């Protein structure tokens, strides 16, 4: 039972500040679970910047799920495109490994706010899926709640 | 922020500092020439690629591009 989630956030920073801050968001006090961050690919194509980064995070597994996942760390691939002319930043993240147990994919599109000049709008979509027979509903529900909790 | 490979931390810091200044001072101002940090990126990459092998990370899965392709997931109505 895949779960889909979406919301919109307004940041009180202009788009340039958000785009610059995107590269510097770790470490920060709210993301102690992020252990490492590396840039693996980066190139400019047709005026747009394409980047791929690898993040590693600690993995909190509930007791009942320990039989599916034993890893203490999880790796995340983050792809992004920055279009400085249209002032759009798109990020797309997914977990590596254990994707059959639980996959969490998140896409965020950051644009300049038309309504509020000087502010930035982030449109976020997230997909949580699991292919474990008999447990996928419980795993998706857990993943969905954990995802929402992390946003608070 | 640390690199996945402890040995790469200094190379990563140097590269990140270069990139952040290039991004703010050049790229966002319309200059798309990215040669400025290329030498730092190259040495940093040699280190990271080795560290990823040590951590047994599935390179094929990492190299798979999704964003901007038709493999991207599509929005749907929440169930």
Automatic annotation (TrEMBL), chain A:
Please give the InterPro entries that the UniProt record associates with this protein: PRELI/MSF1_dom, Slowmo/Ups
The UniProt entry, under Pfam families, shows: PRELI
All residue ranges annotated as the PRELI/MSF1 domain in the record: 2-152
GO CC annotations, alphabetized: mitochondrial intermembrane space
**Superkingdom as given in the UniProt entry:** Eukaryota
| The protein, known as | PRELI/MSF1 domain-containing protein
Phylogenetic classification of the source organism: Eukaryota, Metazoa, Ecdysozoa, Arthropoda, Hexapoda
TrEMBL record, chain B:
Matching entries from InterPro entries are given as: MDM35_apoptosis
What terms describe the molecular function in GO for this protein? phosphatidic acid transfer activity
Would the keyword Hydrolase turn up in this protein's UniProt record? no
In the record, the note on similarity to other proteins reads: Belongs to the TRIAP1/MDM35 family.
Write down a Pfam family by its short name.
Answer: UPF0203
Catalysed reaction, written as an equation:
a 1,2-diacyl-sn-glycero-3-phosphate(in) = a 1,2-diacyl-sn-glycero-3-phosphate(out)
What is the official name of this protein in its record? TP53-regulated inhibitor of apoptosis 1-like
A GO biological process of this protein is: phospholipid translocation
Q: Does the keyword Membrane apply?
A: no
What does the organism's lineage look like at the top?
Answer: Eukaryota, Metazoa, Ecdysozoa, Arthropoda, Hexapoda
State a GO cellular component annotated for this protein.
Answer: cytosol
Query: What are the UniProt keywords, alphabetically?
Result: Disulfide bond
């Amino acid at each position: 039972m895949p779960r889909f989630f979406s919301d919109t956030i307004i940041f009180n920073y202009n788009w340039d500040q958000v785009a610059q801050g995107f590269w510097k968001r770790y470490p920060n006090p709210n993301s102690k679970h992020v252990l490492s961050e590396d840039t693996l690919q980066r190139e400019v194509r047709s005026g747009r910047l394409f980047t791929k980064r690898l993040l590693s995070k600690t993995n909190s597994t509930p007791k009942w799920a320990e039989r599916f996942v034993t890893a203490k760390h999880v790796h995340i691939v983050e792809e992004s495109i920055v279009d400085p002319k249209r002032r759009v930043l798109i990020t797309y993240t997914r977990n590596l490994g254990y994707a059959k147990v639980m996959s969490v994919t998140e896409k965020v599109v950051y644009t300049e706010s038309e309504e509020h000049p000087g502010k930035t709008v982030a449109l976020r979509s997230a997909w949580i899926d699991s292919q474990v027979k008999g447990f996928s509903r419980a795993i998706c529900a857990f993943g969905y709640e954990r995802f929402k909790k992390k946003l608070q | 922020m640390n690199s996945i490979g402890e040995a790469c931390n200094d190379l990563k810091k140097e590269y990140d500092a270069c990139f952040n200044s290039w991004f703010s001072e050049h790229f966002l101002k319309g200059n798309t020439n990215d040669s400025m940090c290329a030498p730092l990126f190259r040495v940093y990459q040699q280190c990271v690629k080795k560290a990823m092998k040590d951590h047994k990370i599935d390179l094929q899965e990492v190299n798979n591009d999704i964003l901007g392709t038709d493999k991207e997931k599509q929005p749907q109505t929440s169930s």
